Amino acid sequence: MKALKTLLLITILYCTQANLFAQSQDTQGGFKAGFNSSTIGGDSEGVKSKLGFHIGAFLKLRASNYVYIQPEAIFSMQGANASEGDMKINYNYVNFPLLVKIYPTGEKLSLLVGPQIGFLVSAKAKINGEKVDLSNELKRSDYALAFGVGYDFNRIYLDLRYNAGLSNTPRNSDEGSFPNNVIQLGVGIFL
Asked: Which of 51, 74, 95, 96 has the fewest CB atoms inside 10 Å of its own CB, making it the most exposed?
Protein backbone atom coordinates (compact mmCIF):
# COMPACT_ATOMS: atom_id res chain seq x y z
CA MET A 1 0.00 0.00 0.00
CA LYS A 2 2.86 2.35 0.83
CA ALA A 3 4.34 1.72 -2.63
CA LEU A 4 1.08 2.64 -4.35
CA LYS A 5 0.80 5.87 -2.33
CA THR A 6 4.37 6.78 -3.25
CA LEU A 7 3.70 6.02 -6.92
CA LEU A 8 0.49 8.07 -6.85
CA LEU A 9 2.31 11.07 -5.37
CA ILE A 10 5.10 10.83 -7.94
CA THR A 11 2.58 10.47 -10.77
CA ILE A 12 0.68 13.55 -9.62
CA LEU A 13 3.91 15.55 -9.45
CA TYR A 14 4.95 14.45 -12.94
CA CYS A 15 1.53 15.21 -14.42
CA THR A 16 1.45 18.62 -12.77
CA GLN A 17 4.86 19.41 -14.20
CA ALA A 18 3.81 18.07 -17.61
CA ASN A 19 0.70 20.26 -17.62
CA LEU A 20 2.77 23.34 -16.77
CA PHE A 21 4.76 22.77 -19.95
CA ALA A 22 1.79 21.64 -22.04
CA GLN A 23 1.83 24.76 -24.20
CA SER A 24 5.32 23.88 -25.42
CA GLN A 25 5.69 21.32 -28.20
CA ASP A 26 9.15 20.64 -26.82
CA THR A 27 7.75 18.89 -23.74
CA GLN A 28 5.29 16.02 -23.48
CA GLY A 29 4.24 13.89 -20.55
CA GLY A 30 2.14 10.85 -19.92
CA PHE A 31 1.68 7.46 -18.33
CA LYS A 32 3.20 4.12 -19.15
CA ALA A 33 2.72 0.48 -18.15
CA GLY A 34 3.92 -2.89 -19.27
CA PHE A 35 5.41 -6.27 -18.48
CA ASN A 36 8.70 -7.26 -16.83
CA SER A 37 10.77 -10.37 -17.12
CA SER A 38 13.30 -10.15 -14.29
CA THR A 39 15.98 -12.27 -12.73
CA ILE A 40 18.85 -11.99 -10.30
CA GLY A 41 22.09 -12.14 -12.27
CA GLY A 42 25.76 -12.26 -11.55
CA ASP A 43 26.82 -15.15 -9.33
CA SER A 44 23.29 -16.39 -8.58
CA GLU A 45 22.62 -20.04 -9.33
CA GLY A 46 19.40 -21.97 -9.65
CA VAL A 47 17.19 -19.02 -10.58
CA LYS A 48 15.04 -18.31 -13.59
CA SER A 49 13.10 -15.28 -14.73
CA LYS A 50 9.95 -14.03 -13.04
CA LEU A 51 7.12 -12.17 -14.75
CA GLY A 52 5.81 -8.92 -13.31
CA PHE A 53 4.60 -5.51 -14.40
CA HIS A 54 5.59 -1.87 -14.24
CA ILE A 55 3.51 1.31 -14.18
CA GLY A 56 4.33 4.98 -13.90
CA ALA A 57 4.71 8.38 -15.51
CA PHE A 58 7.20 10.10 -17.82
CA LEU A 59 8.22 13.42 -19.34
CA LYS A 60 9.74 13.78 -22.80
CA LEU A 61 11.88 16.92 -23.18
CA ARG A 62 13.32 18.02 -26.54
CA ALA A 63 17.08 18.64 -26.51
CA SER A 64 17.40 18.87 -30.34
CA ASN A 65 15.59 17.65 -33.45
CA TYR A 66 16.95 14.15 -32.91
CA VAL A 67 17.55 13.94 -29.15
CA TYR A 68 15.11 13.96 -26.23
CA ILE A 69 15.60 13.50 -22.49
CA GLN A 70 13.00 11.28 -20.82
CA PRO A 71 12.87 11.11 -17.01
CA GLU A 72 10.47 8.52 -15.60
CA ALA A 73 9.03 7.42 -12.26
CA ILE A 74 8.12 3.72 -12.41
CA PHE A 75 6.78 1.20 -9.89
CA SER A 76 8.36 -2.11 -10.93
CA MET A 77 7.78 -5.70 -9.78
CA GLN A 78 11.10 -7.58 -10.00
CA GLY A 79 12.77 -10.68 -8.56
CA ALA A 80 13.26 -14.28 -9.65
CA ASN A 81 11.94 -17.82 -9.30
CA ALA A 82 13.89 -20.92 -8.36
CA SER A 83 14.63 -23.17 -11.31
CA GLU A 84 13.94 -26.16 -9.04
CA GLY A 85 11.67 -26.36 -6.03
CA ASP A 86 9.04 -23.92 -4.81
CA MET A 87 10.71 -20.56 -4.18
CA LYS A 88 9.68 -17.13 -5.46
CA ILE A 89 11.59 -13.93 -4.76
CA ASN A 90 9.51 -10.75 -5.11
CA TYR A 91 11.13 -7.30 -5.07
CA ASN A 92 9.12 -4.10 -5.52
CA TYR A 93 11.01 -0.95 -6.53
CA VAL A 94 10.23 2.62 -7.45
CA ASN A 95 12.70 3.29 -10.27
CA PHE A 96 13.79 6.61 -11.73
CA PRO A 97 15.39 6.15 -15.15
CA LEU A 98 16.84 9.21 -16.91
CA LEU A 99 16.88 8.23 -20.57
CA VAL A 100 18.40 9.86 -23.62
CA LYS A 101 16.18 9.04 -26.61
CA ILE A 102 17.83 9.39 -29.99
CA TYR A 103 15.64 9.48 -33.10
CA PRO A 104 18.03 8.54 -35.95
CA THR A 105 15.50 9.44 -38.65
CA GLY A 106 14.08 12.42 -36.77
CA GLU A 107 10.80 10.73 -35.82
CA LYS A 108 9.05 7.48 -34.82
CA LEU A 109 11.95 5.01 -34.20
CA SER A 110 14.15 5.76 -31.18
CA LEU A 111 17.17 4.31 -29.43
CA LEU A 112 17.31 4.88 -25.70
CA VAL A 113 20.01 4.69 -23.07
CA GLY A 114 20.51 6.08 -19.59
CA PRO A 115 21.12 5.50 -15.90
CA GLN A 116 18.48 4.34 -13.46
CA ILE A 117 18.27 4.53 -9.70
CA GLY A 118 15.73 2.41 -7.86
CA PHE A 119 14.50 2.46 -4.29
CA LEU A 120 13.38 -0.77 -2.63
CA VAL A 121 9.78 -0.69 -1.41
CA SER A 122 9.47 -4.32 -0.33
CA ALA A 123 11.26 -7.65 -0.68
CA LYS A 124 9.65 -10.97 0.13
CA ALA A 125 10.34 -14.60 -0.61
CA LYS A 126 7.89 -17.44 -0.66
CA ILE A 127 9.60 -20.74 0.12
CA ASN A 128 7.42 -23.87 0.07
CA GLY A 129 4.36 -21.73 0.86
CA GLU A 130 5.97 -19.82 3.76
CA LYS A 131 6.49 -16.05 3.36
CA VAL A 132 9.76 -14.47 4.47
CA ASP A 133 10.48 -10.71 4.60
CA LEU A 134 13.85 -9.94 2.96
CA SER A 135 13.69 -6.13 3.22
CA ASN A 136 16.38 -5.90 5.91
CA GLU A 137 18.70 -8.15 3.89
CA LEU A 138 18.82 -5.88 0.82
CA LYS A 139 20.26 -2.47 0.07
CA ARG A 140 17.63 0.28 -0.15
CA SER A 141 18.94 1.62 -3.46
CA ASP A 142 19.71 -0.11 -6.73
CA TYR A 143 21.55 1.19 -9.80
CA ALA A 144 21.16 0.06 -13.40
CA LEU A 145 21.90 1.04 -16.98
CA ALA A 146 18.83 1.02 -19.21
CA PHE A 147 19.04 0.67 -22.99
CA GLY A 148 16.63 -0.34 -25.73
CA VAL A 149 14.47 0.74 -28.65
CA GLY A 150 11.15 2.52 -28.96
CA TYR A 151 8.58 3.46 -31.58
CA ASP A 152 6.21 6.43 -31.42
CA PHE A 153 2.72 6.29 -32.86
CA ASN A 154 0.53 9.40 -32.68
CA ARG A 155 -0.25 9.56 -28.95
CA ILE A 156 1.12 6.14 -28.01
CA TYR A 157 4.64 4.74 -27.90
CA LEU A 158 6.07 1.26 -27.41
CA ASP A 159 9.46 0.46 -25.98
CA LEU A 160 11.54 -2.60 -25.29
CA ARG A 161 14.42 -2.13 -22.90
CA TYR A 162 16.92 -4.00 -20.81
CA ASN A 163 17.85 -2.72 -17.36
CA ALA A 164 21.28 -4.15 -16.59
CA GLY A 165 21.91 -4.14 -12.85
CA LEU A 166 25.09 -2.37 -11.78
CA SER A 167 24.87 -2.83 -8.02
CA ASN A 168 24.93 -5.81 -5.72
CA THR A 169 21.52 -6.02 -4.01
CA PRO A 170 22.32 -7.84 -0.71
CA ARG A 171 23.51 -5.65 2.18
CA ASN A 172 26.25 -8.06 3.24
CA SER A 173 27.48 -10.27 0.47
CA ASP A 174 31.01 -11.58 0.41
CA GLU A 175 29.92 -14.45 -1.78
CA GLY A 176 29.63 -12.67 -5.14
CA SER A 177 27.52 -10.26 -7.13
CA PHE A 178 23.71 -10.43 -7.32
CA PRO A 179 22.34 -7.56 -9.47
CA ASN A 180 18.75 -7.13 -10.68
CA ASN A 181 18.36 -7.62 -14.44
CA VAL A 182 15.04 -6.73 -16.06
CA ILE A 183 13.61 -6.84 -19.58
CA GLN A 184 10.66 -4.45 -19.97
CA LEU A 185 8.03 -4.20 -22.70
CA GLY A 186 6.07 -1.00 -22.17
CA VAL A 187 3.31 1.10 -23.68
CA GLY A 188 3.14 4.83 -23.04
CA ILE A 189 0.28 7.26 -23.62
CA PHE A 190 1.05 10.95 -24.18
CA LEU A 191 -1.36 13.32 -22.45
From this structure: 51
Say whether domain 2-190 belongs to CATH 2.40.160.20.
Answer: yes
Q: What are phi and psi of 121, to 5 degrees?
A: -100, -45
Task: Compute the radius of gyration of the chain from its Cα atoms.
Answer: 17
Structure confidence by residue, pLDDT tens digits, 61-120: 999 989 999 999 999 999 998 877 788 999 999 999 999 999 998 789 999 999 999 999
Domain residue extents for the chain: 2-190
State the pTM of this model. 0.83
pLDDT score of 23: 45
pLDDT bin (cut points 50, 70, 90) of residue 127 is confident
Compute the Cα dihedral for 7, 9, 14, 19 and give only its sign: positive
DSSP string, 76-129: EEEEEEESSSSEEEEEEEEEEEEEEEE-TTSSSEEEEEEEEEEEEEEEEEEETT
